[in-house]
Amino acid sequence: MSTVKHEMRRKSLCARRRIALTDNGSPWRRKVSLAVAVGLGLLITSFNQIHAAEKLMDALVPYAKHRYARTIELLTPLADRGDAVAQLKLGIIWSRGHGVPRDNFAAFQWFARAAKRGQSDAQFELGVMYRDGLGTPADGKVAMRWFQRAAENGTPQAFNAIGELFLGRRDYAGALIWFVRGAELNNATAMYNIGMRYALGQGVVKDEIEAYKWFDLAGDAGVGRERDNAKRARIVLSERLTPLHVWTAKVGAEDWLRAHRCFSEMTSGEIGMACTRFR
């Protein structure tokens, strides 16, 4: 009886194998089919990415020419489909009032969508919105979190923004740490803020030669208002310093540039640990 049962099970197993081969083909064929399907999927994905990039470039051409109505028309469909750069650009257009009435609520919505997709400039802009209460209630702690994310992604102005939050709490030592990190990324505002701390003796011993050095660095790195502010501060100090002091400051600025031409990026953990002081 057991021999009969064994033979029946053997025949049943063979039948199932024959059915599997008939329905699905050989294991080798199944592997080939899977590889072809994966390859086609990657090809389609690559094509879609190239197509999306071309659409984005087409939208940014009128943006560069300040044709903002056309830019909004072209960017909006891309942003709705999740393009983080398109979302960032729309946020900038609405927050700055480029060719449209300024709309902080619309800007906040676009920055938030791009920031959640990891767009570092949008993370910084969203931090500004929370810090200044634009399009949303002001919240310094939430602003700090978004500035922190932007800093982790290497956005230079985020380091300065974190420093200014510490400055608002009169934590001058904490502020200087972040200003120096921003300066190492060639952020002119951070350099100017370091100069002000030395000029006023906040968190450091007052040192007008050192202050002049940082204003000199900020003037060279900055543009527009940043450069003008640094130059004015430098002129004020030069009226009190001797020519030797000014020369010493300029040599110090040149030495700092040589020493910090290559910046080693901080790890995310270091940024997070430093920001815990603010909470």
Describe the structure in brief.
The chain is mainly α and 279 residues long. The protein has 14 helices and no strands.
Strands, helices and their partners?
Blueprint (H helix, E strand, L loop, with lengths): L1 H23 L2 H38 L3 H13 L3 H13 L7 H13 L3 H13 L7 H13 L3 H13 L3 H13 L3 H13 L7 H14 L3 H14 L4 H17 L8 H8 L4
Helix pairs in contact: 2-3, 3-4, 4-5, 5-6, 6-7, 7-8, 7-14, 8-9, 9-10, 10-11, 11-12, 11-13
Query: Span between N and C termini?
Result: 79 Å
Largest beta sheet, briefly? none
CATH superfamily caption of the largest domain: Tetratricopeptide repeat domain
Mean pLDDT comes to 83
Q: Beta-strand level of the residues, as a percent range? A: under 5%
| Total beta strands | 0
Total tally of structural domains = 2
Total of DSSP H or I helical runs spanning 4+ residues? 14
CATH topology term of the largest domain? Serine Threonine Protein Phosphatase 5, Tetratricopeptide repeat
* Approximate shape: elongated
Note poorly predicted spans: 19-23, 42-48, 263-268
Question: For the record, what CATH class of the largest domain applies?
Answer: Mainly Alpha
Radius of gyration from the alpha-carbon trace, in angstroms = 29 Å
Question: Share of helix among residues?
Answer: over 70%
Structural class: mainly alpha
Name of the CATH architecture of the largest domain: Alpha Horseshoe
Reading the helices and strands in chain order gives: HHHHHHHHHHHHHH
